[in-house]
Amino acid sequence: LQPFPTRRCSNINEFGNRFNQAKNSALSIIESLEDGDEAVVISMAGSPNRQQFSFSRNFSMLLEQIGKMQVSNSSANLESGLKLAASLIEESINLNRDLFIITDGQKNIFSNIYEDSLRLTLDNTGIIVIQPGYDSKAEILNYSVDSLSIISSIFQIDKIVEAEARIRNNS
């Protein structure tokens, strides 16, 4: 598998860019499918429209779709992605069904799924979670400092300087 170039993803560990790791995982899944299998690729970033997605047996098209995926400025929405996947899986004609969730597993995508509103029925469906970077020895957090304000007005050697920072989780 060839790695894909991305410009805006800074989450790199000893295995490379995590977005590319995720894409390579998705490519491996599609490449392992056999005649008669069907699949759909759903990006959890943004607001997926139900009409955009349907199962396909055209694996070349799915591989191309994965290859064209880019890092998004919007956060992943696990809740809407799972609801969309569940509605699509209900329509699947195959008896053996698997749902692969490829995620970096950062806390912000789980914010809404603990509410009672997310009750999914995935009968006869295996759920496999793939987390690129999970085995990494490096702790990668996608944080940025949005602003830094110095509160102290007097600066002295060996004295604490008080500051206030606004930190954002960009994951």
Concise synopsis of the structure shown:
22% of the residues lie in helices and 18% in strands.
Write the layout of secondary structure elements.
Blueprint lengths: L11 E2 L2 E2 H14 L27 H10 L9 H13 L6 E6 L22 E6 L12 E8 L12 E7 L2
Parallel strand pairs: 3-4
Antiparallel strand pairs: 1-2, 5-6
Helix pairs in contact: 1-2
What can you see in these coordinates?
The chain has 171 residues and is α+β, with helices and mostly antiparallel strands. The protein is 22% helix and 18% strand. It has three helices and six strands. It has helices at residues 18-31, 59-68, 78-90; strands at residues 12-13, 16-17, 97-102, 125-130, 143-150, 163-169. The chain has a two-stranded antiparallel ribbon. A two-stranded parallel ribbon has the order 3-4. β1 and β2 (16-17) form a beta hairpin. α1 (18-31) runs antiparallel to α2 (59-68). The chain is elongated, with a radius of gyration of 20 Å. Mean pLDDT is 76; it is low at 1-10.
Q: Structural class, judged by helices and strands?
A: alpha+beta
Range of helix content: 10-25%
Compute the separation of the termini in Å.
26 Å
**Major sheet: arrangement of strands:** 1-2
- The total of helices stands at 3
Q: What's the helix-strand series? A: EEHHHEEEE
Radius of gyration: 20 Å
Number of strands: 6
Taking the sheet with the most strands, its summary is:
2 strands, antiparallel
Q: How would you sum up the global shape?
A: elongated
